[in-house]
Amino acid sequence: MKYLLILADGMADYEIAELGNQTPLEYAHTPNMNTLARTSIIGKAATIPEGFPPGSDVANLAVMGYDPRIYYTGRSPLEAVSMGIELSDTDLALRCNLVTLSDDKDYQDKTMLDYSSGEISSAESAVLIKTLQEKLGSEEIHFHPGISYRHLVVWKNALGKRIMLTPPHDITDRVVGEYLPAGQDSGILLDLMLKSNSILENHPINEKRRTTRQNPATSAWFWGEGKKPTLDSFESLYGLKGSVVAAVDLVKGLGISAGLKSIEVEGATGAIETNFAGKARAALDELKRGQDFVYVHIESPDESGHQGSLDHKVWSIEQIDREVVGMVIDELEQFDDLRVMIIPDHPTPLSIRTHSREPVPFMIFDKNNPVSDSIGIYTEKSADHGMFFLEGYKLMEYFITGK
């Protein structure tokens, strides 16, 4: 048996009056998902355990079949794994976003205008992160460039530091004062953020971005702290050798930590516009080359949700249907046995522009075992009438074994 999991990050949403009280998933033109849904198992899974934040780190961990209550150590350490950064047992890793803040004089009075600095290019941001490392880096603090606006800071020998940090995508259009680093040991991080603003504000790259009407990257913003991860291998838990196809370091790092082979796809961006078909092609090729399981992560709906763009969210869902699910259907006959699951990790509702913790709809299609009494449609509402997994991490075992 071959297994393909298509993770549409943040695809689930709330009803929207503009869409006739439908969700984007209901409203979008998804003929290929509808074709699979007619003979699929449909239901919902709670991917965020009680007491955990509704982040992609926790949710993807659960969808991949790992109980977050046992395995969760933070978001940034998984990104460090993807970036090839070795962490010691006493290091603290932190996500470092390059963000756009307003021009208000005092830092605490500034507004979070853009958590992604206009989805700044990796080439531009690499220069900015290098500048921050040269001016602010030390034996204790190390800045590491990542992809687009997503970067990493390693704070040496800081495990156990008491800090409270806020994801920047949670505070779009809000004054940042009450969301600045807090806690007994937060002073060094706040100082770095203040200094980064002075360094980046008039950097030549940002001056150029302003002239082309692109948002400048005016500050570093720290969040997603955590320690070195330790995961049991996916193969030891589920008996399958597999691959992960993802553009974002979080999911790549999670896959690598789980012993999955990370597959690079040209043109895969981790942004709204990405190489949808390239990801599908890479996943199917991995199964044909002998892998048992492939986890395909697509960030586009989540980024659309964070940006509050209804048009982009509907478009991203339709692209997934056409370019990814469509290709899977076209090549079904090339597999003797194939089981496919489509699922978001969490909702990213347009109305709040951040993650929420409601259970997410899933669909499981088995080529050789069609369901004759299927609900027949894959939406948030229809999934309420199907199976329900209160502990979302158990869905993976059901996907693989049917039990």
User: Which sequence of strands runs across the widest sheet?
Assistant: 9-8-10-1-11-12-2-13
Biggest β-sheet: count, sense, barrel?
Answer: 8 strands, mixed
Strand tally is 13
Query: What is the ordering of alpha helices and beta strands?
Result: EHHEHHHEEHEEHHEHEHEHEHHEEHEH
Oligomer designation: single chain
Strand % is 15-25%
Please name the CATH architecture of the largest domain.
3-Layer(aba) Sandwich
Count of DSSP-assigned helices: 15
Query: What is the helix fraction of residues, given as a range?
Result: 25-40%
CATH H-level name of the largest domain... which superfamily?
Answer: Alkaline Phosphatase, subunit A
Shape summary: globular
Span between N and C termini? 15 Å
Which whole number gives the mean pLDDT? 97
Write down the domain tally.
2
Structural class per helix/strand content?
Answer: alpha/beta
- What's the CATH class label of the largest domain? Alpha Beta
Radius of gyration: 21 Å
- Contiguous low-pLDDT stretches (5 residues minimum) are none
The name of the CATH topology of the largest domain is Alkaline Phosphatase, subunit A
